[in-house]
Amino acid sequence: MSTAKAFAPGNVSGVFKIIPDEDPAKMHSLGMGFTVADGVTVTVTESESTSVHFNADPIEFATVRTVLAKLTSARVRVEIETDLPLSGGFGLSGASSLATAFAVNALLDLGLSENALAMAAHVAEVENLTGLGDIAGQFNGGCLIKLVPGDPLAALSLPVPEQIVHYRYFSAINTKDVIGNPEQRERINAAADTALIELARLADRDETEFASYIGVAKEFSVQSGLLLDDDVKSAIRECEQTGGTASMIMLGNAVFSDVPFTGAKTTRLAKRRIELLR
User: Fold this and answer.
1) Which of 8, 50, 109, 267 sits in a 20 to 30 Å window from 247, CA-based?
2) Based on the domain organization, do 66 and 93 belong to the same domain?
3) pTM of this prediction?
């Protein structure tokens, strides 16, 4: 039985501004984030019925099913494998949808461009309120800032080298509860406007120190009102007390840092992007 396989990296957002639009293809986010070496591997196989499995367990994955419906009426089995936590702020709904789109395109020889596949995954994310900016990161790869409203895939690559990143996941945050709340969105966007000015300044001077960008993200997490979880606050404090920088992963009760801290795992900031596996 023929199969196709694709990899998409996890994406960590440190700063985001919501760009609303009635057209899901134009609604997205600006901000700063980075892709990591860990991600999802998606295997798609033709099947008698469509099903989605996450680490071998059946799952009703609305975003993945939406992107499938946009691309084909064929019935397929989608198998998603990852070591990263779902709903932990690593953009797994985006990664899973993007890798599914690339794999289905290859399996069924749909002939769609990479941009078309990425936009299908982005629209699926927006329609399901599971994300606004992860696809841009996963489509481009690396440490990026997004400053151009109206183009969900546009991103500027920052000269931050690949390096070890320490992280700890505590609990999930429902993205729908945040981006669907008008008052919360207003506060987030106000904080993001300030952060974007500073990020643009860092980019203009070709800042290479990851810590500089993490510092902007930390201030955004405070001013946006998103830094609420006591475990997250405590972990950030620990990092700062040992001379490091840390911030909250958007959107999850999780922390990323440039120094080790209690209970942290390690990954790598990596420039690997979405990739069809042979």
Assistant:
1) 8
2) yes
3) 0.94
Q: Measured at the alpha carbon of residue 46, what is the angle toward residues 43 and 50, in degrees to the nearest 5?
A: 85
Of the residues 156, 179, 205, which one is the last residue of a structural domain? 156
Q: What is the average pLDDT score of the chain?
A: 95
Structure tokens at 250: 């958007």
Same-domain check for residues 36 and 113: yes
Q: What is the pLDDT of residues 229-255, one digit of tens each?
A: 999 999 999 999 999 999 999 988 999
pLDDT (tens digit per residue) in 160-186: 999 999 999 999 887 777 777 889 889
Same structural domain for residues 152 and 168? no
Instruction: Tally the domains of the chain.
Output: 2
The domain that contains 17 carries what CATH number? 3.30.230.10
Give domain status of residue 274, yes or no: no
